[in-house]
Specification:
Layout: H1 7-15, E1 17-21, E2 30-31, H2 33-47, E3 53-58, E4 62-63, E5 69-76, E6 79-91, E7 94-101
Antiparallel strand pairs: 1-7, 2-4, 3-5, 5-6, 6-7
Keywords: Signal
Signal peptide: 1-26
Domain DUF4333: 22-92
């Protein structure tokens, strides 16, 4: 049996804007992969407090450019679920991005 986020919880997750600080590790500013993973874990836990979340992994850092995205995966209540973080805006050193079920 596959456990899934409820529709309301998934909608809350998709509409939430998250903020991230920039890093300058590479030639382009980006939100560190581990920071995106942490934000995803916190957001899932806030919308699904009764579900265990572990092993959140993203493919790469999230480049600080509108429209950029990074694919992520998390284990939620024993089920692998896919997410993506998408940059909505960049204002100075603040990156606003949404997290959506993928």
């Amino acid at each position: 049996m596959t456990n899934r986020l409820g529709r309301a919880a998934a909608a809350s997750l998709a509409s939430a804007l998250l903020l991230g600080g920039l890093t300058a590790c590479s030639s382009e500013p980006a939100v560190k992969e581990k920071d995106v993973e942490k934000q995803i874990e916190q957001r899932i836990k806030s919308t699904n407090p009764d579900k265990e979340v572990k092993d959140v992994n993203c493919d790469d850092d999230l480049k600080a450019k509108v429209g950029e995205e990074v694919k992520c995966e998390a284990e939620v209540a024993g089920s692998k679920q896919k997410f993506k973080a998408v940059v909505k805006s960049v204002n100075g050193k603040t990156v606003n991005y949404s997290v959506e079920k993928d």
